[in-house]
Write a structure and sequence with these properties.
One of its GO terms (molecular function) is catalytic activity. This is GGDEF domain-containing protein. InterPro entries: DGC-Regulatory_Protein, GGDEF_dom, HNOB_dom_associated_sf, Nucleotide_cyclase, Rev_trsase/Diguanyl_cyclase. With 345 residues, this protein is an alpha+beta fold. It has three domains: 116 residues, Haem NO binding associated domain (Beta-Lactamase); 37 residues; 156 residues, Alpha-Beta Plaits (2-Layer Sandwich). Helices cover 39% and strands 22% of the residues. Strands 2-1-6-5-4-3 form a six-stranded antiparallel β-sheet. The chain has a six-stranded mixed β-sheet with strand order 8-9-7-12-13-14, with helices on both faces. It has a two-stranded antiparallel sheet with strand order 10-11. The protein is rod-shaped, with a radius of gyration of 42 Å. The termini are far apart.
Length: 345
């Protein structure tokens, strides 16, 4: 099958005039394998290269069947309406499916379609529904694909929104709404993880002294202000990897990751005691509280449990209160409490 100039092109056989409408992707070949006519959609794929006069195999490369050198090979290989796969030789190298039907003058009618390359063809050639036969299901299939894509995109967006809502709900469930700190639920989860991982840590229980007096004399709004300021101070005096939680009205629990060094913990405790003991202005009034703290270390237990550590830190806290408040105490193995320096209220 050779291609070339339009000179000597055999006239197209007498086919129905409606063939372009019924098969807009067809080609008519003469007995030499030259194109004598191209359907309008197929010609649209090469708008600046008229197909009549070109050799079929000069325009296309056969993918299947192979070893095709002329129309007789093609007719013999494809038989009666057998399928073939081919590709444009010049870019865009669109893949096509085709069927060849021999006609009585030695030539053939070839009808082509895009198959799996449809979406690429729509992108490369700006095809519309008018480029396909009225009975061609291509556009309906494309509509279904687009509808499915739109539905999947809508589903993806909805899933993303639900994920964000779930994350927000979970975050809210683990957050104290007043201070923004973790709540008791967050503490329980973090404490369980740290114990299960075998990580060394310190657990500190902090209680605000005289907080009830602020509420009783200045009102709950003043009390909320004190809690917010206390949360800010505790966050500022701890490291980024530490956890500060509010577990009750004026009670807080702090977890110190990989910190069981008593002097270091004592230093943090004394800084918080000093800052929390300073007057807190509020609407022309002065709020005064102090802080008592009790700490226990995971390294003091052979097999630490959350319940035991919380109980021991609570015992150390109340030992600090009994000693006069504004103090910090360590709980040690055997149920004893060790003291730290006593500061004035």
């Amino acid at each position: 099958m050779t291609g070339g100039a339009t000179d000597g092109v055999t006239a197209a056989p007498d086919f129905p005039p409606g063939l372009d409408a019924i098969c807009p992707m067809h080609l008519l070949l003469d007995d030499q394998g030259r194109i004598t006519h191209a359907g309008p959609t197929l010609q649209k794929l090469r708008p600046h290269r008229p197909m009549p006069g070109l050799g079929f195999l000069d325009l296309f490369r056969m993918v299947h069947p192979r070893n095709i050198h002329g129309i007789q090979d093609l007719r013999a290989a494809t038989g009666d309406r057998a399928r073939m796969r081919l590709r444009f030789r010049d870019p865009p190298h669109t893949d096509l499916l085709g069927v060849l039907v021999p006609h009585g003058q030695g030539g053939a009618l070839v009808n082509l379609g895009f198959g799996l390359s449809l979406l690429e063809a729509l992108r490369d050639y700006s095809l519309t529904n008018t480029d396909f036969a009225a009975t061609d299901p291509t556009m309906e299939m494309l509509f279904l694909v687009e509808a499915k894509s739109a539905a999947m995109e809508a589903s993806r967006k909805l899933t993303h929104q639900l994920d964000l809502a779930r994350v927000a709900a979970e975050e809210q469930a683990y957050t104290d709404t007043l201070t923004g700190l973790g709540n008791r639920r967050a503490l329980d989860q973090m404490l369980r993880r740290m114990i299960e991982s075998g990580q060394e840590f310190a657990l500190m229980h902090l209680d605000l002294d005289f907080f009830k007096a602020v509420n009783d004399t200045l009102g709950h709004a003043a009390g909320d202000h004190v809690l917010e300021q206390a949360a800010r101070i505790m966050t500022e005096e701890t490291r980024a990897e530490d956890v500060v939680t509010r577990v009750g009205g004026d009670e807080f629990v702090l977890l110190f990751h990989n910190l069981c060094h008593r002097p270091g913990i004592e230093d943090i405790a004394q800084r918080m005691i000093r800052r929390l003991g300073q007057p807190m202005p509020w609407q022309g009034e002065t709020c005064r509280v102090s802080a008592s703290l009790g700490t226990t270390l995971s390294t003091d237990y052979q097999s630490p449990t959350a319940e035991q550590m919380l109980s021991d830190a609570d015992a150390a806290l109340y030992a600090a209160k009994r000693a006069g408040r504004s103090q910090h105490r360590f709980h040690v193995a055997g149920g004893h409490v060790s003291g730290g320096p006593i500061l004035g209220q």
